[in-house]
Design goal:
Layout (H helix, E strand, L loop, with lengths): L2 H15 L6 H9 L8 E6 L4 H14 L4 E4 L11 E3 L2 E2 L2 H20 L7 H15 L4 E5 L17 E4 L7 H4 L3 H8 L8 E5 L4 H13 L3 E5 L5 E6 L2 E6 L3 E5 L6 H17 L6 H10 L7 E5 L2 E5 L4 H14 L5 E6 L6 H8 L5 E4 L10 H8 L6 E3 L3 H15 L2 E6 L4 H15 L1
Parallel strand pairs: 1-5, 1-6, 2-5, 6-7, 7-8, 13-17, 14-15, 14-17, 15-16
Antiparallel strand pairs: 2-3, 3-4, 9-10, 10-11, 12-13
Length: 434
């Protein structure tokens, strides 16, 4: 296949395969490919919010410590290839297409034997295992999809460390009816006798679920306590704080919630050292201060200020709201919002609307997208100035004009699935205006 055929292949899988939890299909696919996942070391990261940022920080620190590092994340924001990074470099199109072709052949072989064709996410995950092994990765930082125990990435055996970031209500149709059931599903990545780092949970049910699984699996548990981060503030455009033995930390990633993610990373580094990895303190500090990660309070332009953020559930909305209150309440804020229908967006709207000046809703180009017109009706219950835009590019253009005329900022948030198109529309608009 070429790159265009690859995209058609994945689109077909997404439209026909849906979401299937469980590891039987993934195990069969890995067997067909020679079990590449069994030949590398991993840091496995699950949670509801902060997974991608945490993975990116860990990858940067390990690279600066001299390791060859694979980083697998999902979903893609600006391009499918970006899900697979080796020392920060994405897999090239031809190599990617060749591996997908190879995996497609294995999937056809499974069908011929009477098995169900793997899902899009299972194929994406298989690509990661094959590519990283062939690139000689010493450590792979592996982000789960939406789940934990039944997530395709959980086919790995015992990772160096299992990391649980912030957990909140999301994907309830698949993971559980309450926060404790969701936490139990996420904690499914914990292995017998393993080492675990978890963000300190505010909800008792989350803490109880994590600790119960750790006890059952005889796994050691370390909490990253956000309250131990001292002197949190902004200096020269970077979020700064001190934490334990590491001392003064500067984060390149914006967003007040990154303090909690960085605390998880620092505690994970401690366990990695116990596992035998050599990670100098300087690599930790430099890694945290130079990490780049798209889709989490990412500034795309400064005049006017245009930010994208993948906040799409209650927990992420609370953290985004905290960031806006921390440094942006002195200006008008224009929202562009697009969400998926199966997300708990009602609570997100309730949290975010009080800070908005104007709100524009859009429809992401995704099979599970919520129609932007319906979203506008729902948002209108919490805000008096809500409009629907039929095209994402139109929403971007409209928001820029409003921001320039009123000294306002724009933040596009919600589903990651439309942020790449918003970025492209912004770039084209700015190029045209020149």
């Amino acid at each position: 296949m070429n790159q265009e055929e690859v995209e058609r292949y994945f689109k077909k899988l997404q439209e026909t395969g849906g979401i299937q939890l469980g590891l039987s299909g993934m195990r069969r696919l890995m067997e067909m490919l020679g079990d590449p996942h069994e030949k590398m070391d991993y840091i496995h990261v699950a949670g509801t919010n902060g997974k991608g940022s945490t993975c990116a920080m860990l990858s940067e620190i390990l690279q600066r410590s001299g390791y060859c590092v694979g980083l697998y994340t999902s979903p893609a924001v600006f391009g499918r290839n970006e899900q697979y990074l080796v020392n920060g470099k994405a897999v090239e199109g031809e190599a990617f297409a060749a591996i997908v072709t190879e995996i497609e052949d294995a999937c056809r072989g499974m069908e011929e034997m009477g098995f169900v064709h793997p899902t899009a996410f299972e194929v994406e995950t298989a690509v990661a295992f094959v590519w990283f092994l062939r690139q000689g990765c010493q450590v792979v930082v592996l982000e789960t999809g939406m789940g934990g125990g039944e997530d395709a990435t959980n086919i790995i055996k015992r990772p160096l460390v299992s990391v649980l970031t912030s957990i909140s209500k999301d994907h309830m149709r698949f993971l559980g009816n309450n926060i404790e059931e969701i936490a139990q599903a996420k904690a499914g990545i914990i292995k017998e006798g393993g080492s675990v780092v978890a963000a300190w949970p505010k909800e008792f049910g989350v803490r109880r679920a994590i600790e119960a699984v750790c006890q059952e699996k005889h796994a050691s548990l370390v909490y990253a306590k956000e309250e131990e981060a001292k002197k949190v503030g902004w200096e020269q455009g970077k979020l700064c704080f001190s934490y334990g033995r590491v001392g003064e930390v500067r984060l390149s990633l914006a967003g007040a919630y990154q303090v909690q993610n960085a605390a998880c990373v620092i505690e994970t580094v401690g366990l990695l050292r116990e596992a035998g990895l050599r990670i100098p303190r300087e690599a930790v500090l430099q890694g945290l201060s130079h990490t780049r990660w798209v889709g989490r309070f990412t500034v795309l332009c400064k005049e006017p200020l245009f930010v994208i953020d993948g906040a799409h559930n209650e927990g992420a909305a609370e953290k985004l709201c905290e960031t806006l209150k921390m440094g942006f309440t002195n200006r008008k804020i224009i929202y562009i919002i697009g969400v998926l229908a199966d997300k708990a967006h009602e609570r997100m709207l309730e949290i975010m609307m009080p800070l908005a000046w104007k709100v524009i809703t859009v429809t992401p180009k995704h099979p599970r997208a919520l129609d932007g017109r319906q979203l506008a009706i729902e948002a209108g219950q919490y805000h008096k100035d809500v409009s629907y835009s039929p095209e994402i590019a139109q929403a971007v253009g409209q928001s820029l004009e409003l921001a320039q005329a009123n000294q306002a900022m724009v933040i596009a948030f919600g589903s990651l699935s439309y942020l790449g198109e918003a970025k492209k529309a912004l770039e084209e608009k700015r190029q045209y205006d020149r």
